[in-house]
Amino acid sequence: MQPDKIFSLLKLKFSQATQEGSCGAVVIPRERLLDVAKYLISSELSFDNLHCITAVDRQERIELVYIFFSLQARHNLTVKVYLTPDDLKVESLASFWKSADWFEREIYDLFGVTFRNHPNLRRILNPEDWKDHPLRKNFSRSDFIKKERY
Amino acid sequence: MAITEKIPASGLIEKLPGGGVFLTTTENIFKWAKVSSLWPLTFGLACCAIEMIAAGASRFDIDRFGSGVFRASPRQCDVLILAGTVSVKMGNCIKRLYAQMPEPKYVIAMGNCAITGGIFCYDTYSVMKGTEELGIPVDVYIPGCPPRPESLFFGLMKLQEMIRKEKNAAR
Residue B140, CB half-sphere, CA atoms under 13 Å: how many? Predict the structure, then answer.
């Protein structure tokens, strides 16, 4: 299915969804994430594979990027959720796609986004006693040597 | 004649008539045994470990130096070859492995990452700036990214040379 067709189907169901940029990513409000996920996996779109979750720190907001793929229909979809830095909480998708478990742990580890109802939200890469989140733009530490930019 | 010149303290060696019996000091025997059986720990951290594996295979053959017996337990080995990037999370593990090794023990830092952090020295939160930052004394540094197996052998021979010059061999 073409990306525009997928978007128009989503727009029918979720009126707040908007399309962003040239890549055609669909931005949805944080509150509707669970509903969108339920629709994506159970409707005729049949997104049975959560390919990747990643995050981008834009300083005024943190974007979560979800990339879905359908192994049956062979189409994909990028969904974005914007979070404000003072409230980094979002619902977990681990109950729909098992791959979300470790992706969300990684984002929690590196960006400090908390996922509600996650089965096991612990750090996955960094030592468990760390307090900070290294991929944030404002991350700094005494032993962190910054290289000069030319 | 040529062989005896290569043996340490060959002036002390006597050959008895009619038999292959040598007389030497116990210190030299200890040193010879130590130098000829430096067993490393099976411990690879990153891409340098691939070169270490190549050094163990038949083309380069680390067995020629008596170091071919890679032990899977720190309690059975003499030399810790730190081959690769030492990450912060691996740091405690390395300290514990080093503490479990029986004396006398030696450490070879193989590759730029194990020496100073290498390309991960700047702008990285997860890599130690070298093995010495962990408080582990390093005997031989082998630079390279990664060093070739020949460089590893050169470092190993330097370590053997160092052990031959040690004052108290039976420590």
Answer: 24
Residue bearing the bigger pLDDT, A131 or A147: A131
Q: Note whether A126 contacts B123, CB cutoff 8 Å.
A: no
**CATH code of residue A40:** 3.30.460.80
End-to-end CA distance of chain A: 46
Q: Answer yes or no: is A123 within a domain.
A: no
* Number of residues assigned to chain B: 171
| Optimal mutation site among B88, B89, B125, interface A, most CBs of chain A within 10 A | B125
Give yes or no: residues B4 and B79 share one domain.
no
Render pLDDT for B34-68 as a digit per residue (tens, 0 to 9).
899 999 998 889 999 999 999 999 999 999 998 98
Mean predicted confidence (pLDDT) in A10-32 = 87
Find chain A residues with C-beta within 8 A of B93's C-beta. none
Q: Which two tokens stand for residue A76?
A: 């994909």
CB contacts of B129 in chain A (<8 Å) are: 143, 145
Counted domains in chain A: 1
- Rounded to whole angstroms, how far apart are CA atoms A73 and A47? 8
Q: Is the pLDDT of residue B99 over 90?
A: yes
What is the ipTM, given to two decimal places?
A: 0.72
Domain range holding B100? 37-164
Distance from CA of A133 to the nearest CA of B (A): 10
